[in-house]
Write a structure and sequence with these properties.
single chain; alpha/beta; Alpha-D-Glucose-1,6-Bisphosphate, Chain A, domain 3; 4 domains; seven-stranded mixed β-sheet; six-stranded antiparallel β-sheet; 16 helices
Length: 479
């Protein structure tokens, strides 16, 4: 068994295939997840990576060995898998490594109703079961070697009985495997978030980067009054054109060029499993996740006055300002889907946004969907009759650093040093350390998997951002 610490992350399982994630591990995770989730079936889906079919087959064998059935929905985006888990009210597993290169793969898990599975909501328990399985297998192998060395050609009656008892659960009453196609139902579900009669002809370019957007985006747009052009729509998990990671500016260049070439109203950039989306406007200028959050919130608040909207703590201050101005109730959360979904459940929030391009909807089982966010914004553009480059202006009130990563030996000690340097500021330790200095603020969070600190800083203008970022970086590096 591979190193579990290397592949079990905060919100999913992910690693290089087969060095870190292989069929043996996938099978063990399948069995452990089926036991943890309970119920009589597990939904399985996959992206187009070359390693996905083999890993899905191994995971399916692990699930069915426990007597649990598998419903395989085949190639899918992650938000399609979440939809299936909600619609069928069953736990699900999506095989994808999202924006990571082709050598990687992973497993995103959810419970029935698309409820999240993260480190604090089941992933640690699943990991422990997998570790026990590995330890048991190693012990069994050692016992076999000892028997052979002792010349024991046959197991004793007691040994045979013990072996039978230990293996009975996995070798009797195996679960069944069936298939289902929910793509059309998912497309109709996405379209249900907007008033179809309000949509007007718009030119849309979508760069799906050979990822799962090539499957779901055209189906969702069928019958809508948009002129859609898809870039790199062929499903190819080797990502031959550019990485499926739209948060990196260099991966938006093809989309930006095409938007200008065809005079598009908007460009949509999806990641590998198509659950995240980043937008570029009619002038090919990218929108931050905070601006997109504000746009979606503004649209939804028109239809649902007074609704609660969540946003994570690295979003721009402009987000809660906009929500309050539009009569909504802004609620700040930690970074990460399991935290956001929990707060949405507690507060009944209509919508939640993350600066990283994840957008969560109450009526989508509180799961995230870049496609739903996209059609909501297209509806807003249709109604406004003004270009996106104008609609965004009132929402972008501050300058931001973007996420800056700093390698440090002791993240905890650095956080304390930074906190001590701002004795008069507002300090918040909800997620790492947030320091509010009035006109400017920043958050410093340790990475879940690496010796890194992630810094996000916002100030009134670019000059102030550079000045204060240098100050915080010097503190982080011990200067």
């Amino acid at each position: 068994m591979v190193d579990l610490d290397a592949v079990f992350k905060a919100y999913d399982i992910r690693g290089v295939v087969p060095d870190q994630l292989d069929g043996e591990l996938a099978r063990a995770v399948g069995a452990a997840f089926a036991r943890f989730a309970g119920g009589d079936r597990v939904i399985v889906a996959r992206d187009a990576r070359p390693s996905s079919p083999e890993l899905v087959a191994a995971f399916t064998a692990g699930v069915t060995a426990t007597g649990t059935d598998v419903v395989d929905i085949g190639l899918a985006s992650t938000d399609l898998l979440y939809f299936a888990a909600g619609r069928l009210d069953a736990p699900g597993a999506m095989f994808t490594a999202s924006h990571n290169p082709a050598a990687y793969n992973g497993i995103k898990l959810c419970l029935a109703g698309a409820r999240p599975v993260g480190q604090d909501t089941g992933l640690a328990e699943i990991r422990a079961q997998v570790a026990d399985t590995a330890a048991g297998a190693a012990e069994h192998t050692a016992a076999q070697v000892a028997d052979t060395a002792a010349g024991a050609a046959d197991h004793t009656a007691a040994g045979a009985a013990e072996h039978t008892a230990a293996g009975a659960a996995e070798h009797t009453a195996a679960g069944t495997v069936s298939s289902a196609d929910l793509l059309d139902d998912f497309a109709a579900h996405v379209r249900s978030f907007v008033d179809l009669g309000a949509l007007r002809p718009l030119v849309v370019v979508a760069d799906v980067a050979n990822g799962m957007g090539g499957l779901v985006v055209p189906r969702v747009f069928e019958g809508l009054p948009f002129e859609l052009e898809v870039l790199y729509g062929e499903l190819d998990g080797t990502f031959p054109n550019h990485p499926a990671d739209p948060i990196q500016p260099e991966n938006l260049k093809a989309l930006q060029a095409r938007v200008l070439e065809v005079g598009a109203d908007v460009g949509l950039a999806f990641d590998g499993d198509a659950d995240r989306v980043f937008l570029v406007d009619d002038r090919a200028e990218p929108l931050s996740g905070s601006t997109t959050t504000s746009l979606v919130a503004r649209s939804l608040l028109e239809a649902h006055p007074g609704a609660t909207i969540t946003y994570n703590l690295i979003c721009s201050k402009a987000v809660p300002e906009l929500i309050a101005e539009r009569g909504g109730t802004p609620v700040r959360t930690r970074v990460g889907h399991s935290f956001i979904k929990a707060v949405m459940a507690e507060t009944g929030a209509l919508f939640g946004g993350e600066h990283s391009g994840h957008y969560y909807f109450r009526d989508n089982y509180r799961a995230d969907s870049g496609l739903i966010a996209s059609v909501v914004i297209l509806e807003q553009l249709s109604k406004a009759g003004r270009p996106l480059s104008e609609l965004r202006r009132s929402l972008e009130r501050y300058a931001a650093s973007g996420e800056v990563n700093v390698t440090v030996e002791d993240p905890g000690a650095v956080l304390e040093r930074v906190a001590a340097a701002f004795p008069g500021a507002g300090l918040d330790r909800t997620d790492g350390l947030t320091v509010d200095c009035g006109p400017w603020w920043f958050n410093v969070r340790p990475s879940n998997t690496e010796p890194l600190l992630r810094i996000n800083l916002e100030a009134p203008d670019d000059v102030a951002v550079r000045q204060h970022l240098d100050e915080v970086l010097a503190l982080a590096k011990g200067g």
